[in-house]
Design a protein that fits this description.
Strand order of the largest sheet: 8-7-9-10-11-14
Bound molecules: nicotinamide-adenine-dinucleotide
CATH architecture of the largest domain: 3-Layer(aba) Sandwich
Radius of gyration: 24 Å
Largest sheet: 6 strands, parallel
CATH class of the largest domain: Alpha Beta
Structural class: alpha/beta
Shape: globular
CATH topology of the largest domain: Rossmann fold
Strand content: 5-15%
Helix content: 40-55%
CATH superfamily of the largest domain: Malic enzyme, N-terminal domain
Number of strands: 15
Distance between the termini: 21 Å
Amino acid sequence: MLAPRSLDVAEDTIRPSATGMTLLQDPVLNKGSAFSREERARLGIDGLLPPHVSTMDEQMKRVLANVRGQADDLQRYTELIALLDRNETLFYRVVMENLDEMMPLIYTPVVGKACQLYGHIFRRPRGLFITRHEKGRIRDVLRHWPHRNVRVIVVTDGERILGLGDLGANGMGIPVGKLSLYTACAGVHPSCTLPITLDVGTNAQSLLEDPLYLGVQEKRLVGREYDELVEEFVTAVQEIFPHALIQWEDFANHNAFRILEKYRDRVCSFNDDIQGTAAVTLSGLISSARLTGVALKDQRFLFCGAGEAAIGIADLIVSALKAEGVSEADARGRCWFIDSKALVESTRKDLQDHKKPYAHKHAPVTDLLAAVKELKPTSIIGVSGKQGQFTKELIEEMARLNKRPVIFALSNPTDNSECTARQAYEWSDGRAVFASGSPFPPVTYKGATFVSGQGNNAYIFPGVGLGVVVAGSSRVTDEMFFVAAKTLSAAVTKEDLDQGRIYPALQMINEVSAVIGTAVAEVAYARGLATEAKPADLERHVRSLQYKPVYKKYV
Ligand code: NAD
């Protein structure tokens, strides 16, 4: 059943590579108190465990009680990571069966706090760190990784972690968290994933002065030295893990766009902050159109922020509109941006390259509310990383202009959100179609309950990665993200929409990822990018390769 370079889906019964205490201390093999009596006798662990043989359900109950009993979310995160270090299968079972509760702990918003405090709460290393001191021998560092069948690498240089800025080596929590979502949301086997931090230093003074900081305590590498390190890293990955997809993660935008452009046609890689965000947001906009009745091609979008997320979303909207027959110029003309200074328009002389295609003719405008009044957008999309940008006045104005204003406050973590779900619903008198980057609880307003959508990239990147890996695609293309966005939107049911929800329930994510993975793999086959033979039933094949968190029987 296994394809060549498979996702490492192993048989139900295996012969473990360790026995005795070594077996109990191996998080991949360990089953804790769930080892059967025969296994305990055969594998030399009799007496090393308390006598009761637990079922996985009993173990899960214990874990959930412990996690929930912690004093705060950071401690819940620490408890979960400790479980991952002890018993990987149980960790994934707990996470996958309780995604609504666990996702905010292992990813945004709590992972942000965990990153900020990385050096202070550090217990065990996870992933690979590469610094300028390894220059010339990055291949050797990659060889230190214990697994050979690496299929997905998430790599950061820690310069723009969530909306938190430069966290240097502390950013490692992000590749770790994202890869755990590849497994939990799409079933990519954990042993096929590799988190990497390119620790090129940090410019955050607080970290440079923190005696417990664990990264290189130097200012960031820039220019040629930086580029050479990234280049050596990419070349080394191609040699040591030739079938690995590289996901660029949380790079600051001055590097993110450059790196994406430099490598997207050379190696199998993508940038989730640009392309994954774009797809999940486009999907939300397609679904919103089902609620507002205003077709995508009749909308006007105003972005608060003009960085990686904003430009990535706009570029994909342009592709989507072009696919609907709108000209490129017209499509771009529907996307407007305000950055930290002013409206992005043609008289500005200070624009970075990525903003220039959207610098339309317009007189200067310096504030967001004035821009809304002048441009009359149907949708406002907050990707500024700055809290509170969507004021009461602004949302009231959007509600005056539109029967159903589309308000996406995507900045992470929660504290950075441009507005809260409650504010969006209350200030629009219950008419907003709202989505956020970090989750908000349901809101009851005037007797109605609104379940807002979380524009979580986890709806997209794990499924895209799964499809790329199953097909052995040599590249990741924009078409794949476009197809992923449409597939995600098609998974939103009428019941979801009736509650105001423009994304499927999180508990559906594994199912949705399988369908996205299939659609993405189809693109790889159709475009001649696949290196794996195409199976007769692709969707079934994709599902058969998905990891399931169940214990294997040891013989
Ligand atoms: P970025 O640093 O590339 O861009 C930030 C942009 O915001 C810049 O153009 C900056 O000029 C602008 N900005 C700053 N202050 C502003 C202000 N007061 N008014 C208007 N614009 C302002 O960052 P990014 O990668 O684009 O991410 C931005 C935010 O989006 C982050 O908070 C991130 O967490 C969030 N994000 C959310 C998702 C998601 O929900 N799925 C995905 C990716 C990013």
